[in-house]
Amino acid sequence: MSASLEKGINALKKEVDSTVGAFFTSCVNCGMCADACLFYTETGDPAATPINKTEPLRRIWKQEYTLFGRIGKLLGINKPVDHNLLNRWETLVYDNCTLCGRCSMVCPMGIDITAMIRKTREGMAAAGHAPEGLIGATKRAVEIGSPMGVKLSTLMAVISHVEKDTSLKVPVDVEGAEYMLLLSSMEIMNFPEFIQAIAKIFDKAGVSWTISSEAFEATNSGIQIGVSDIAAELVQRIVDAAEKLKVKTVISPECGHAYMAIRWDGPNLVGKAFSFKVRHILEVLDEFRKDGRLKITGKDSQKLTYHDPCQISRRGGVIEQPRNLINMFADNFVEMPDAGKMNWCCGAGGGVSANERADELRLKVFQRKKDQLDEIRPDAIVSACSNCRINIEEGLEEYHMDIPLMSLTETLAEHLAK
Fold it and tell me: CB-side exposure of 156: number of CA atoms within 13 Å?
């Protein structure tokens, strides 16, 4: 057995606990998770069913922790977990899954299939079976601080442009601020208007805020690739920065996995409760609305709809807040079919967007989002995840759909009362 395979198998063994055993024991192979997964519904590939993606983990559980599995192992009749298996399953685990959580919602036995796939990725990554693009992004996140290689100098250049355009100060490393804003690399590089919108809104709301020069990146590549140690290291950087600046609340930006990583997974990863609150930007903006700090003028008469980012809505519970905010400026808001916690993924989360090998598949499964949009035919789409925005824009172009896509935070800033 090679050293990398042994490391991968040991990583899978480490993931097997009583919960995993209960899940595999209770699975009745009903197939309901298949119909909840766009990688199955849009390809028809039986291998793409969610529960099948956990096969490497299931084999380890069966061979190491069940009576008949141990007997089979002794007799040499079990199918082994080897490099051949991991190589075949790599595309299923990384290319055919965004960790969106829709399969977990419909399982009649209550199996958190998404968590099982994440555990499977732990073994895959340890054995060296992960996409090159995701490996590169994770390496850059550790060494540079950003999966896209964005350095502090780049952020400061963007901030300088924002300050010039708005005549507002974008505070950096301000101790004692109420809020510390995180940013994803995509917002810095692709959507700097987000920073501009925050500066305008926070100025009008009259709140103190800052960005940390030591931990401004929100994206957690460790979660996406499946290496808990790296995920914990990236979370700890944010914790250290927030504690150093003595902020009350850390804000996750318009990015799905960033929110899950810092809000829900973060304390478990670093092994302690945070000394500060964590909120998604939409939660903060909705609090401003309730407090009367968010003053909006003008109504948009276009037919608008909202794309629920999976990690924010389904797995994060931020469902009512974006609708409260949209209704402040929208005269004609319509829901997508299966909206809210059961909305369909855009097809790019969970590291899929960083995996060039999955580009063709990613655009193919966008057919599901196209079907949703065809049913309601909106004039424009609103969303709150930079990763979703990029993928939806590419999907709309691929399917020749001329529908504008808007950031919720940026749109609110455009409607601020003067």
Answer: 8
Ordered strands of the 380-383 beta sheet: 330-333, 300-306, 380-383, 405-407
Per residue in 337-388, pLDDT tens? 999 999 999 999 999 999 999 999 999 999 999 999 999 999 999 999 999 9
Q: What pTM value is reported for the model?
A: 0.94
For residue 243, what are the CA distances in angstroms to 177, 237, 246, 250, 335? Answer: 11, 10, 5, 10, 40
- Going by pLDDT thresholds of 50, 70 and 90, the confidence category of residue 73 is confident
CA separation for the pair 218, 228 (Å, rounded) = 16
pLDDT value at residue 67:
85
| Type of residue at 305 | T
CA distances from 225 to 212, 264, 370 (A): 25, 17, 28
The confidence score (pLDDT) of residue 69 equals 79
- pLDDT score, position 150: 96
Q: Name which of 95, 91, 116, 94 is nearest 33 in CA terms.
A: 116
- Burial, 195: exposed, middle or buried (Cβ in 10 Å; 0-12, 13-18, 19+)? buried
Query: Mean pLDDT throughout 35-58?
Result: 97
Query: Would you give the DSSP letter of residue 130?
Result: S
Laid out side by side, the sheet with 277-280 consists of 209-210, 179-181, 249-252, 277-280
CA separation for the pair 33, 106 (Å, rounded): 6
Cβ-Cβ contacts under 8 Å for 328 (sequence gap 6 or more): 289, 294, 296, 412, 415
- Helices 83-90 and 113-126 cross at an angle (nearest 10°) of 130
pLDDT, tens digit, for every residue of 108-148?
Answer: 999 999 999 999 999 999 999 999 999 999 999 999 999 99
**Cα diameter, the chain:** 77
Tokens of 131: 């996409």
Strand partners, 251: 181, 279
Single-letter amino acid, residue 244: K
Cβ proximity of 393 and 362 under 8 Å: no
Rounded CA-CA distance 208/222 in Å is 31
Single-letter code of the amino acid located at 371: D
State yes or no: pLDDT of 193 exceeds 90: yes
Say what percent of the chain tops pLDDT 90: 94
Q: Where are the alpha helices (DSSP H) in 206-310?
A: 221-225, 228-245, 256-259, 266-270, 281-290
